[in-house]
Amino acid sequence: MHRDYISSLILCNICKQDPSKQKIRIMKKTLLAFLISSFVITASYSQINIDTAAVIKNNRQLYSIVVSQNDKIVYNKYFNDKSNHDLFNNQSLTKSVISLLIGIAIDKGYIVSVDEKIVKYFPELAQDTDKRKQDITIRQIMNQASGLWHEDLINLGKYFALADPSCYLLKAPLVSEPCKVFHYNNAGTHILSVILTKSTHMSTLEFANKYLFGPLAIKNVEWGKMRDGYYDGCGLLSVHLSTADMNRIASLLLHKGRFNSKSIVSEKWIAQILNPPVFYTTDWGFQTSTYALCFYHYNYKGTPITYGLGWGGQYAFVIPAKNAVINVNESINDATAIKASIILLDKIFPLIYQQLK
Q1: 20 and 65 share a domain?
Q2: Residue 218 pLDDT level (bands cut at 50, 70, 90)
Q3: What is the bridge-based pairing of β-strands 88-89 and 222-223?
Q4: 221-242: string of b/e by CB count within 10 Å (b at 16+)?
């Protein structure tokens, strides 16, 4: 709630109790001092110190870093001509947002459970000659272990040109037994957006605005659609948000899905994200990370970290032991993306982590 609105309510109440002008003037000064001091504490960025010149020298692809700890922004910096007004291409961080939306859809009863079979939403699978496809679950899609994949889909130009990318993928032969092998699959994850739309009878963006972005007071969002008319579920066209807004979304993992004492995502779903019962090893992100439900997990210096990751260095690190969230956005330039991401993990992340008390 806006602090000016709060002050007007309080002052209105004061006037009813004691209409003297002197009393009102005193209370105005006292209230203003309180609100200003509260705001400064909340918006203080002085607790984390990074040599900005060194950061830029090492990584010209860096756009932003926002760090929150104990529900306060402790670092908020923008680089290479970017600002807090910019909406950034979050790439596969889109998958982590989709994960929260799937959890909310389960909470609201639109989806029965993460172990629901996708044949419910794609009845054409019942006619497929490979009957294993009928047993593929939402969890397996979210774990990148559905067995669905097609080598043609590594050609993004061809994928973007498909009128029905989900149908194309579902018709392709399985490359592995469902749930057996981790195979990172953008086309598979897009299916989650289709499932959200079919189950809720709302577009993915409409559903997100109603149950996630809206309750978090996130107003500025851009989200691309595939040619099938569904909002991108994997991060190839991506959800575009400010770094601070993505930090607010990731902070739900610290608070059992709550924001301002209101439940946005159920505690049960957040617990599954933080401690998934089924997970797979992956080469993405920190080496020896594991993956489940569209999030990564890693033990950094003895401290568990859950994080979202997008191509080129789009990160959302959640560190429950430190009550902290670190968000980063970088360029998605293919020529520099891998190098920029490595610099972030090896050089910049440790500088921030060591200052989190």
Answers
A1: no
A2: very high
A3: unpaired
A4: eebeebebebbbbbbbbbbbbb
Are 86 and 168 within one domain? yes
Residues 29, 136, single domain; the answer is no
- Among 39-53, 139-153, 213-227, name the most confident range: 213-227
- pLDDT tens track for 3-23: 333 333 333 443 334 444 444
CA distance 174 to 150: 8
pLDDT given at position 21: 46
Q: Are residues 207 and 110 in the same domain?
A: yes
The count of other CB atoms within 10 Å of the CB of residue 30 is 10
- Residue-wise burial string across 284-295, b where 16 or more C-beta atoms lie within 10 A, e elsewhere: ebbeebbbbbbb
pLDDT digits (tens, 9 = 90+) for 106-117: 999 999 999 999
Q: Which domain holds residue 18?
A: 3-34
274 lies in a domain? Answer: yes
- Give the whole-angstrom CA distance, residue 60 versus residue 50: 15
- Work out how many domains the chain is built from and give that number: 2
44 domain-assigned: no
Do both 146 and 284 map to the same domain?
A: yes
Alpha helices in the chain (DSSP H): 3-17, 21-43, 52-58, 93-107, 138-142, 156-161, 165-171, 186-200, 204-208, 243-250, 267-274, 337-343, 349-353
CA distance 301 to 150: 38
Both 94 and 16 in one domain: the answer is no
Give the other-Cβ count within 10 Å of 171's Cβ. Answer: 13
* Pair 107, 146: CB distance under 8 Å: no
Q: How far from the centroid of its chain's Cα atoms is residue 107's Cα?
A: 18
